[in-house]
Amino acid sequence: MPPKPIYEIDPKTYLFGKSLSISAEEANNKRRKFPEEKVRQWTLFELMTSYGYLINDLKIEVPSKMGSGYHPADIVVYQDHRPFIVIECKKIGNNKTDEAIKQAITYATGLKTEFAVYTDGENWIVRRFVSGFWVEVVDIPATLNLNKGKTALNLFLFIDKLKPLLFWTHKSIPAAKVRKYFSYFEDFIFTESFNFLGEINGNLLLGAQHISKIMSGPVGEQGSKIIKNEYNNKNLLVAVSLLRKYMGEVGVGGALVKDVETVEDKYYTFEKIVELLNIELSAVAMNYINTAGEEFFLLRLTISVLRYLHETLRHDGILQDVSSSTTHEFYSLVNLILITQLNVELPDVVNLDGVQALEQFSSSMWFEKNQEN
After folding, report:
1. Same domain? 319 vs 237
2. CA distance 281 to 288
3. What strands, in cross-sheet order, belong to the sheet with 82-89?
4. Residue 147 in domain
5. What is the DSSP letter of 342?
6. Distances (CA, A) of 65 to 1, 62, 97, 107, 108
7. CB burial class (10 A; 0-12, 13-18, 19+) of residue 363?
8. Domain assignment present for 273
9. CA-CA distance, 191 to 160, in Å (whole number)?
């Protein structure tokens, strides 16, 4: 819910000592000298009228540490008496958007807030600090909110598909459980439950799907090896085609991996294609590092799965344990979805009580689904 289009605030009602109880000519002169004040006052009024914050939750010109000095943040929203949101205001039509966003993030980092916002009255750009990254999100939370628009059915499907996977949060997965894990992963990420995800490039999503199909294997296959058969070859070739399109759309990578019609080529072997995809997508991820979102975390998860697949192929296709670094990538993706869509958060690895409670919550579904199969 970005705020309403900018509107004029009567200078006589400006907040925090900025009111202009002077002649119209003097007021106009001050507005020309400080054009960003018009944007700041509109933002303050919107925070109260559209987002429900109280005036006592708001402060202006709060010092934020930058290097060896301090610089004033235009607006800081407080929650439970702690800085929660930093908002950097610029004059209408400001053409240095990237620089202003970086400034907002710098102030937010100094004040240790969760959100950083840039606005010039026309743009409203929001970042949220999640898992060590400033992630692009749609908006800041309102005080009463927050998740209108998702149906109860979406929510139930989401939790049902997610629950067995949560059992392995922050843990490595034994080789004997890998097939099952990835079959549930595929079921979760490519069903209606994924309505909870934000906008993600369709070619990346489908490319990741076909990589996961290699990991889970055909329906009913329970072997301990990844066999280079027709089923896996087809999924790999489809993944190559989709991921090359994705790299073409984002303008990074794609030079090493060519569209191929067979994996029997002397150079483009199954193992080599997996290795090159991993290298190419890692280069794409480096480009995303300052604008992390759901797509970035899905990309990192795909890279981690490709890395595991390559290592497995080096062991003659014999399934290996999946390291906790890969399950952590899944955790980061799901945690971001939960934060941005439901305003809830999974326990991190140092929260031992929370991790144990999560395991107890999800264990019945993991074991129940294993018995079904």
Report:
1. yes
2. 11
3. 58-66, 69-79, 82-89, 115-119, 124-130, 133-137
4. no
5. I
6. 30, 10, 22, 7, 10
7. middle
8. yes
9. 11
Tens of pLDDT, residue by residue over 46-105, are: 998 888 888 888 999 999 987 778 889 999 999 888 999 999 999 998 889 999 999 999
**Distance between CA atoms of 56 and 81, rounded to whole angstroms?**
10
Token output for 29: 């002169």
pLDDT average, residue stretch 122-132: 89
Q: What is the pLDDT of residues 251-265, one digit of tens each?
A: 876 667 666 666 666
Q: How far apart are CA 62 and CA 59, in angstroms?
A: 7
Total domains present in the chain? 2
265 and 116 within one domain: no
Tens-place pLDDT, residues 165-200? 999 989 999 999 998 899 888 878 766 445 555 567
Separation of alpha carbons 141 and 57, rounded Å: 14
Question: Which of 148, 211, 203, 161 minimizes the C-alpha distance to 334?
Answer: 161
- The model scores a pTM over 0.90: no
- The amino acid occupying position 313 is L
CATH number at residue 71: 3.90.1570
Distance CA 299, CA 284 (A): 9
CA angle 312, 314, 315 (to 5 degrees): 65
Q: Any residues with CB less than 8 A from the CB of 135 and at least 6 apart, and which?
A: 127, 128, 129, 291, 292, 293, 296, 336, 340
- E strand spans, the chain: 58-66, 69-79, 82-89, 115-119, 124-130, 133-137
